[in-house]
Amino acid sequence: MSPRAPLRVVQGGDDVGKRYVLDTSALLAYYQDEPGSKPVVEILRQAEAGKVVVYVSFMTIYEIAYLVGAAYGFVQARGTVMKMRSLPMIEPEADEQLMWKAAEIKAGGGLSVADSFIAALAAVNDAVLVHRDPEFEKARLSIRRMMLPSK
Q1: What are the tens digits of pLDDT across the range 11-26?
Q2: What's the burial of 56, exposed, middle or buried (CB within 10 Å: 0-12/13-18/19+)?
Q3: Three-class DSSP labels, 58-109
Q4: Cβ atoms within 10 Å of 82's Cβ, excluding its own
Q5: pTM of the predicted model, to two decimals?
Q6: Neighbour order of strands in the sheet with 53-55
Q7: Which one of 3, 47, 93, 139 is most buried, by most CB atoms within 10 A?
Q8: pLDDT > 70: what percent of the chain?
C-alpha cells in the first residue's frame, strides 16, 4: 500500500459538528484510492479544519495491521499504522461502555467481533459509520451509516 500524504491530527470537542467512525473498508478505500475514497478524503479534510470529529476503532487499526502485514510484511504494516495514526482521527481506548455495546451488537448477529466493536464506537459516540462492508447493511443496527461504493 502506498498511503496518501498524512494530515495533521486535530482533536475536536463536543461542540464540533458531525461525528464519523471510519471502518477498515473506508480507510482501505482511502489508502488505495479506490471507489469511495473521495467522501473519506472530504471527511478527513473537514476533520483537519475542525468542522467534524472522526473516530477510528482499535479494531480498525488491528485489521489494517494484519491485512498489510499479511500482504506486504509487518515492517510495512507498522509504517502504515503510524501514517494512519497521523490522520485527524481520535482513537479512543476501549472501555466498559464500548465493550457492553459491542457485546450487544455481536449478540444481535451478523457481524464479526471486529465489526461489532467498530459499530459500537459509532453507537456510543452518536457518529455516522462510514463503510463499504455489506455486512453492516444486513445487520440490525440502530446507528447512522454511510455506505461507500464497493470496489
Answers
A1: 334 434 599 999 999 9
A2: buried
A3: HHHHHHHHHHHHHHHCHHHHHHHHHHHCCCCCECCCCCHHHHHHHHHHHHCC
A4: 11
A5: 0.86
A6: 53-55, 19-22, 128-131, 145-147
A7: 47
A8: 89
Q: How many CA atoms lie within 13 A of 3 on its CB side?
A: 19
Which grid cell is 98? 464500548
Residue whose C-alpha is closest to residue 52's, from 146, 132, 140: 146
Side-chain half-sphere of 70: how many Cα atoms within 13 Å?
Answer: 5
Enumerate residues 6+ apart whose C-beta is below 8 A from 128: 18, 19, 20, 21, 122, 143, 144, 145, 146
CB 87 within 8 A of CB 80: no
**Inter-residue contact 101 to 123 (CB < 8 Å):** yes
